[in-house]
């Protein structure tokens, strides 16, 4: 009989509940259960990476950590910060979808020390959102430990000569039937960046200095009045602000000096109240009530020496929802069914001034009501096979410039066959959708002011945008080593209709970018992963690596081309070595993202980007049972991201220079 730990089903609030003991007839989850064992036994193909494996390289937040995660692609370059969740990959925090505004992303407010593990699924199952095209990343935060424990961590360093600093503190413990966790992160970081652009008309050099500050407060409570009932509360309050000053010097034709200043702040509030109730040894009921709010406010000023432009923007995003599920262990079946309803509100207000006069004013209000129902059955067939069929139905009612009612059915099927005790063969097929985000539908215009060019266009939405739909197939082989290592090879194929792509047009003398449904697309991928201890050769030595190869095609208006911005491949490789007698661990990690070469699209614009890599080194020294000292040397290679765009009789080459930075940390645990 295959052991099937009910880790994802025992607690929708925190997957970390897997460390507790829960009896559901055939199911027993114990404290010693490792992520490797969970990955081996889980009926859904899932890559699980412990937070410690990703945080040792000095990443300042969860967004930076995700760049090292197998199967996750985050775009860089063209002056825009890459953000997962805005393309294909659906990013969740403790099972909750991440929603960001122009000036605030929840991932940037999560300290790596808060993360228990990261889970990556290529094909989602019925219990997750049908909007899982491109897979799901679930960031699982730590839950309270039963023993009292205090953690404090101080980080200081420099980025291109500018100071970096952060303080993290956490207290957790248990009092009677109540477990609790409090943590706070205070960060104050500065950066000094340079970039350059070359066009047919001018050359431009830009110096940008910025300061980013944030304060994050988080709490978790778990109240267990009996062995069969548990109530949980999650709360997070994040406040951030930044200021960025840019000086652009243009040469050629008429020399220009453009000064830009961008200031903004964001307030994020997350709250969840949930409960689990074990009705018997075979039945489990779960429920959740949630409220999320993201508010932002900012002002951008630009002065080219002749005219002063100002853009003031305010935005808010609110989510109120409830959900519940019922699980039943019955002979060779484990059945789960659930439902969810939620309401989303988005507000965008943008006012532009030229001189002291209002030149344009835009106010957008969007509302969405969503409902979902699903049923999933995990079926054990003999000693080696588990099949997990499921079906999910969702309906979305959107109200903005027009009212759109969308309903879709998303069936899925996952299969696990155990070739041996340490070898798995997996396969899955799932139908998924990608609904346009509310900001992709909003007609609100985010002006680039005096910076307007091919790679820095004005950005707006498209109210006529339709949802993408896809059918995804996955096959994967996994071998688990006795030393908790793993090697796997897998691939997926995705057939996409109404593919959404961003395209740039030239309108009334300005470049404007908006999303369009460009056509029918196909995406292939091959993924390799290795994590192995070499302790039998060199004591304390280990290696890891993962790589993804991609290929794509798209038919748009009868013309075949590749999907925009599809990198040919990317990989992460690294090595770690521990000298036990010196209580010293050190290692290196290299991340490389290959380039892409997009052909001319329907608007006559083509784009290419050169590949780039980043090398990081780290070392940690255990000073005592309480204190540990760490050193991180980041981006030693200092490679630049070079993007070339051609269109409208113009060629633009943008070079964004990257810089070395270092961090020194000291943390204590009591």
Can you give keywords for this protein?
670 residues, mainly beta, Maltoporin, Chain A, 22-stranded antiparallel barrel, 5-stranded mixed β-sheet, disordered N terminus
CATH architecture: Beta Barrel
Specify the CATH homologous superfamily.
TonB-dependent receptor, beta-barrel domain
- Class, according to the CATH hierarchy? Mainly Beta
Helix content: under 10%
**Beta strand count:** 35
Q: Label the structural class.
A: mainly beta
User: How would a crystallographer describe the biggest sheet?
Assistant: 22 strands, antiparallel, barrel
Low-pLDDT ranges: 1-33, 79-87
The number of distinct helices, counting runs of at least 4 residues, comes to: 5
How much β-strand is present in the residues? over 45%
Q: Please compute the radius of gyration using only Cα atoms.
A: 25 Å
Assembly type: single chain
Query: How far apart lie the N and C ends?
Result: 42 Å
Q: What is the number of independent domains? A: 1
Query: What is the CATH topology classification name?
Result: Maltoporin, Chain A
Mean pLDDT: 85
**Overall geometry:** globular
């Amino acid at each position: 009989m295959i052991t099937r730990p009910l880790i994802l089903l025992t607690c929708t609030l925190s997957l970390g509940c897997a460390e507790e003991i829960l009896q559901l007839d055939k199911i027993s989850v114990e404290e010693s259960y490792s992520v490797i064992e969970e990955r081996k036994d889980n009926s859904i193909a899932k890559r699980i990476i412990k937070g410690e494996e990703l945080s040792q390289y000095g990443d300042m937040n969860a967004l930076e950590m995700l760049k090292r995660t197998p199967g996750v692609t985050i775009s860089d370059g063209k002056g825009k910060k890459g953000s997962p969740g805005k393309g294909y990959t659906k990013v969740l925090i403790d099972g909750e979808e991440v929603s960001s505004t122009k000036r605030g992303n929840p991932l940037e407010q999560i300290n790596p020390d808060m993360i228990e593990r990261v889970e990556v699924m290529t094909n989602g199952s019925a219990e997750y959102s049908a909007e899982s095209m491109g897979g799901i990343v679930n960031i699982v935060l730590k839950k309270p430990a039963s023993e009292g424990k205090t953690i404090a961590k101080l980080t200081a360093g420099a980025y291109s000569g500018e100071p970096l600093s952060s303080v993290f503190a956490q207290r957790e413990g248990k009092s009677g039937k109540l477990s609790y966790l409090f943590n706070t992160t205070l960060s104050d970081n500065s950066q000094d960046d340079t970039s350059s652009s070359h066009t047919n008309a001018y050359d431009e050099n830009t110096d940008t200095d910025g300061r980013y500050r944030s304060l994050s407060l988080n709490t978790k409570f778990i109240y267990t009045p009996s062995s069969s009932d548990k109530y949980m509360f999650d709360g997070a309050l994040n406040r951030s602000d930044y200021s960025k000053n840019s000086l652009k010097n243009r040469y050629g034709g008429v020399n220009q000096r453009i000064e830009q200043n961008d200031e903004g702040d964001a307030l994020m509030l997350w709250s969840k109240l949930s409960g689990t109730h074990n009705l018997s040894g075979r039945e489990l009921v779960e429920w959740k009530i949630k409220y999320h709010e993201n508010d932002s406010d900012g002002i951008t000023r630009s002065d080219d020496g002749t005219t002063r432009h100002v853009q003031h923007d305010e935005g808010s995003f609110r989510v109120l929802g409830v959900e519940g599920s019922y699980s039943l262990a019955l002979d060779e079946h484990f059945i789960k069914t659930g439902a969810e309803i939620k309401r989303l509100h988005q507000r965008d207000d943008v006012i532009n001034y030229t001189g002291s006069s209002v030149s344009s004013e835009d106010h957008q209000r969007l509302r969405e009501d969503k409902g979902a129902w699903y049923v999933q059955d995990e079926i054990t067939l003999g000693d080696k096979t588990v099949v997990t069929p499921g079906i999910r139905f969702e309906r979305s009612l959107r109200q903005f410039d027009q009212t759109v009612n969308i309903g879709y059915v998303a069936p899925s099927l996952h299969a696990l066959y155990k070739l041996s005790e340490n070898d798995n063969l997996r396969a899955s097929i799932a139908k998924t959708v990608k609904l346009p985000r509310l900001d992709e539908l909003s007609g609100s215009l985010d002006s680039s002011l005096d910076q307007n060019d091919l790679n820095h266009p004005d950005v707006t939405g498209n109210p006529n945008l339709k949802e993408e739909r896809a059918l995804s197939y996955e096959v994967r082989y996994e071998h688990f080593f006795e030393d908790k290592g793993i090697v796997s090879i897998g691939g997926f194929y995705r057939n996409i209709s109404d593919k959404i792509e961003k395209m740039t047009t030239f309108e009334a003398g300005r470049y404007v970018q908006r999303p369009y449904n460009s056509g029918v697309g196909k995406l292939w991928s091959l993924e390799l992963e290795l994590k192995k201890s070499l302790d039998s050769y060199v004591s304390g030595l280990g290696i890891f690596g993962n790589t993804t190869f991609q290929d794509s095609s798209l038919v748009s208006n009868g013309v075949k081309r590749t999907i925009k911005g599809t990198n040919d491949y990317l990989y992460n490789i690294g090595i770690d070595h521990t000298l036990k007698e010196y209580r010293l661990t050190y290692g290196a990690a290299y991340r490389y993202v290959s380039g892409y070469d997009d052909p001319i699209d329907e608007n006559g614009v083509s784009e290419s980007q050169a590949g780039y890599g980043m090398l990081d080194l780290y070392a940690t020294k255990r000073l005592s049972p309480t204190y540990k000292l760490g050193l991180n040397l980041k981006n030693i290679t200092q490679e630049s991201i070079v993007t070339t765009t051609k269109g409208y009789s113009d060629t633009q080459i943008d070079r964004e220079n990257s810089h070395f930075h270092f961090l020194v940390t000291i943390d204590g645990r009591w």
